[in-house]
C-alpha cells in the first residue's frame, strides 16, 4: 500500500478550517504540521485542529525533511514568494488561489518547480468537484450546441476595512478574492481569453469593491462576469449555447451540487453526489506526488489564469489589455 503523503500548512488563516477536515478524513495524506510566525499561535492552532507539529516560523516547516507537501494560505502578495521558498526547500506546493495576477511571477514559480523537480498546483478546489467536471463535459460534448456566452457571478458583503481581503498592500479586492473564480470558470468552459474590458469601483481601502468585465474567447464566444465585496451574496455560473444552456446555482463551493440543463423547451435537473472539494484537491496533488494520478491544475492553467487576471486588472485601471504583455 502506498504511504500517505505528509503535509504541512503555512499560515493559520481562516481558509484552513475548510481544508483541514478533508485532510484528516483522507486515506491518501496525513496532515502533520502547521506553521505560524508566532510559536504560541502555532501551538494553540495545532492543539485546536489536532495537528501533531507546530512551527514558530515558516522556514522551520520548510526545513523539516518529513514534510513532503505544503498548503500555502498566506495573503495574496506572499503567494509566489513563499511558494518558491517551499519549492527550494524540496516541498511540493498547493497554493491558495489566486497564485498571482502577474504572468511573470507565475512563470518564475513554475521555472523554480521544474528546476527542483517539484509539483505546484493552484487551489481552485471547485475544479476537482464532480459537478464542475460534469458541466465541462456537457459543454464540450455539445449538449447546448455551440458555446456562445459564459456568465459568472461571485459576490458577498464585507465592510470591515481592516480585513485582509480589503487591503491593497496584500493585493486584496473583489477580483483577486472571488472574481478569480469567475475568470477560472469562464476559462474552463471557453478557453483562454483573447481580449478583455473591465471596470471597477474602488472602495475606501483602495481595493476594487465591485468589479465587472467582458472577455472575448476563441470562436467568437463571449464571457461576462461581475464580482464584489460590497454586494449581496450571490454565486452563479451559466454556459449558454446555440441550442440551450447549463446553469449552476452553487458553482464555487458545490455545497448543493445540482446542474440545470435547459434545452428543447425543457429543464433537466442533474443531481451530483456531494463531495468535499478541499479533500479532492489535496488528494489530487498527493496522487500526483506518488505517481498515481495526473495533476489537474498545473503550469498551463496557472499561467493562463495569471495572464487573464493581469489583463483584467490593467483594463480596470486604464492600462493596456493585452494578455501577453510584460508584467507591471
List the SSEs and their pairings.
Blueprint: E1 5-10, H1 16-25, E2 29-35, H2 39-49, E3 53-55, H3 58-63, E4 69-72, H4 79-88, E5 92-96, H5 103-116, E6 120-123, H6 130-140, E7 147-157, H7 174-190, E8 195-202, E9 208-216, E10 222-228, E11 230-241, E12 244-248, E13 258-263, E14 266-271, H8 277-289, H9 299-316
Parallel strand pairs: 1-2, 1-4, 2-3, 4-5, 5-6, 7-10
Antiparallel strand pairs: 7-11, 8-9, 9-10, 11-12, 12-13, 13-14
Helix pairs in contact: 1-8, 4-5, 5-9, 7-9
SSE order: EHEHEHEHEHEHEHEEEEEEEHH
How many domains make up the 3D coordinates? 2
The count of DSSP E runs of length 2 or more, i.e. the number of strands, is 14
Q: CATH H-level name of the largest domain... which superfamily?
A: Dihydrodipicolinate Reductase, domain 2
- The CATH class of the largest domain is Alpha Beta
Radius of gyration: 20 Å
Shape summary = globular
* Portion in strands: 25-35%
- N- to C-terminal distance: 48 Å
Count every helix, treating DSSP H or I runs of 4 or more residues as helices.
9
Low-confidence stretches: 324-328
Overall CATH architecture of the largest domain: 2-Layer Sandwich
**Biggest sheet, open or closed, and with what strands and sense?**
8 strands, mixed
Rounded average pLDDT? 96
Q: Kindly name the structural category.
A: alpha/beta
Amino acid at each position: 500500500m502506498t504511504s500517505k503523503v505528509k503535509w504541512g500548512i503555512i499560515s493559520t488563516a481562516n481558509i484552513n478550517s475548510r481544508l483541514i477536515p478533508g485532510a484528516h478524513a483522507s486515506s491518501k495524506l496525513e496532515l502533520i504540521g502547521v506553521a505560524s510566525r508566532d510559536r504560541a499561535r502555532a501551538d494553540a492552532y495545532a492543539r485546536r485542529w489536532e495537528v501533531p507539529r507546530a512551527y514558530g516560523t515558516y522556514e522551520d516547516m520548510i526545513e523539516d525533511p518529513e514534510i513532503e507537501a505544503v498548503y500555502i494560505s498566506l495573503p495574496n502578495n506572499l503567494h509566489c514568494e513563499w511558494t518558491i521558498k517551499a519549492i527550494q526547500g524540496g516541498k511540493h506546493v498547493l497554493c491558495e488561489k489566486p497564485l498571482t495576477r502577474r504572468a511573470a511571477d507565475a512563470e518564475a514559480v513554475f521555472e523554480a518547480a521544474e528546476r527542483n523537480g517539484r509539483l505546484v498546483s493552484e487551489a481552485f478546489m471547485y475544479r476537482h468537484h464532480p459537478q464542475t467536471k460534469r458541466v465541462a463535459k456537457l459543454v464540450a460534448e455539445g449538449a447546448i450546441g455551440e458555446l456562445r456566452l459564459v456568465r459568472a457571478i461571485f459576490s458577498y458583503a464585507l465592510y470591515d476595512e481592516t480585513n485582509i481581503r480589503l487591503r491593497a498592500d496584500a493585493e486584496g479586492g473583489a477580483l483577486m478574492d472571488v472574481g478569480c473564480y469567475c475568470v477560472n470558470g469562464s476559462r474552463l468552459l471557453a478557453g483562454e481569453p483573447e481580449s478583455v474590458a473591465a471596470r471597477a469601483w474602488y472602495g475606501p481601502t483602495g481595493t476594487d469593491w465591485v468589479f465587472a468585465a467582458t472577455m472575448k474567447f476563441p470562436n467568437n464566444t463571449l464571457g461576462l462576469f461581475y464580482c464584489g465585496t460590497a454586494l449581496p451574496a450571490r454565486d452563479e455560473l451559466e454556459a449558454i449555447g446555440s441550442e440551450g444552456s447549463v446553469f449552476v446555482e452553487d458553482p464555487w463551493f458545490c455545497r448543493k451540487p445540482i446542474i440545470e440543463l435547459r434545452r428543447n423547451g425543457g429543464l433537466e435537473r442533474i443531481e451530483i453526489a456531494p463531495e468535499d472539494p478541499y479533500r479532492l484537491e489535496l488528494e489530487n496533488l498527493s496522487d500526483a506526488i506518488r505517481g498515481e494520478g495526473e495533476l489537474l491544475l498545473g503550469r498551463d492553467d496557472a499561467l493562463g489564469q495569471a495572464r487573464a487576471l493581469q489583463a483584467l486588472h490593467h483594463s480596470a485601471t486604464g492600462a493596456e489589455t493585452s494578455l501577453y504583455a510584460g508584467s507591471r
